[in-house]
Design brief:
The protein is built from 7 helices and 7 strands. By secondary structure, the chain is α+β, with helices and mostly antiparallel strands. It has one domain: Aminopeptidase. About 30% of the residues are buried.
Length: about 180
Amino acid sequence: MIRQADEKDFNTLYEIINDAAIAYKGVIPADRWHEPYMPKNELAAQIIEGVVFYCYCDENGIAGVMGIQDRSEVNLIRHAYVRTKFRQKGIGRILLNHLISNSNKPILIGTWKAATWAITFYEKHGFSLVSEEDKTRLLKKYWSIPERQIETSVVLADGAYTILVASALLFTPTE
């Protein structure tokens, strides 16, 4: 079952994010890794900034979480994490499909360039890497992250975003 997270889920969100983020340790640049990976104050700030988390629940409780953030013309998939012991069971796919099916806007996803498993996962689900130039522009426009993280990240876009960009190029007046 998927449901929207509420206030009582905060500590569980924190626990799952930091459990699953261990996969980044030794993979992402050392200057970007810290423990906990996402401190409670940062998680609270993400929620205040509009990240709405959804939970995949089974008989054991919450097994995975994924957030979505409305950023005007697009939605961002944010903080997708599955408890280490429940990985490879389709939970990420179920959460992603739920968020996609409930979005009426193009979707963008940012992740670490070194997190090849995450990039492959999103590509399997219809997302494509944007160009380096577009990545930098999009990260600066829609995310609030440091320059160093921009350098070491990628952005993936869904088909709706690709169509939006293509049509904008077609209808841009030329001089």
